[in-house]
Amino acid sequence: MTREQPPKLKSESILGLLYAGAAFLIWGLGPIYWKAIAAVPALEISAHRVVWAFLFILILIVIGRLRTEFVSALKDLRILLTLMLTAVILAGNWLLYVWAINNNYMLQGSLGYYINPLVNVVFGVLFLRERLRPAQILAVLLAGAGVVYLTFSYGEFPWIALALAASFGLYGLIRKVAPVGALVGLGIETMFMLVPAAAYLIYLESQGGASFLRGSVSIDLLLLGTAVLTAVPLTCFTAGARRINLTTVGLLQYMAPTLIFLLAVFYYHEPFAAAQVRTFIMIWIALIIYSTDSMIYYRRAR
Q1: In whole angstroms, what is the distance from residue 186 CA to residue 234 CA?
Q2: Which of 93, 163, 238, 268 is deepest in the core (most CB within 10 A)?
Q3: Which residues lie below 8 Å from residue 248, measured CB to CB, with a gap of 6+?
Q4: pLDDT per position as a tens digit, 83-94
């Protein structure tokens, strides 16, 4: 018989679910936003995202009274070098993701974020010397078999999915080394991206090829809004992760790729061949095995 949680803990858990759920909902519906500015090249979108996100995050840092943490991080050389590296990885991930969405590779984007937890498991073995449980080995092998099957049956190596999963997994792995909060860390990462992003936008403007302030108010507002789309779900995720356990977060994270998958198939009507169907089924089974094993392990650990 389990004890009932105190009202305060219950309300915190519910609030955590709402925060985390909101984050994954925004990330899952994000392709609709990126598709709305598909007329703008992906590199230009990413540059605008960096510039406006940096300014917006600075405002959030001031409002959230995180200035001391931000300044302290700027004085720590180890943190700066770590965040410089993660900034490069994150910039590549952002660019590839937006390009994939706006070039009708949304299913590969979905697949990438489905297999990301399994990539994290592999990275744990390779870099952190973690030992896999039998169920984890089975899940990784099944996911790997799905990728190999898709490559040979469909005739297309899912490089976008694997690049997204690997870059995001590597980002998370390295990011753990920097003892700094999510919002402050992202602020410093976008700071490192700021100069090349701003320089590229200035170059486009000088060549007359910029999309910003060229007569389309809706495009201008959407480019400005990339700052909100970047910072708000991250803030919600951080607030939610502090209030609920990691197993719940792990299960909720599948909401985003599921929404992307549903949008790709039923709203944007991307081609979905039999080989892709079988691959997704193999990945889903792998994730069910992985998630079930994680829940059992977490309960035993408690």
Answers
A1: 9
A2: 93
A3: 16, 17, 20
A4: 999 999 999 999
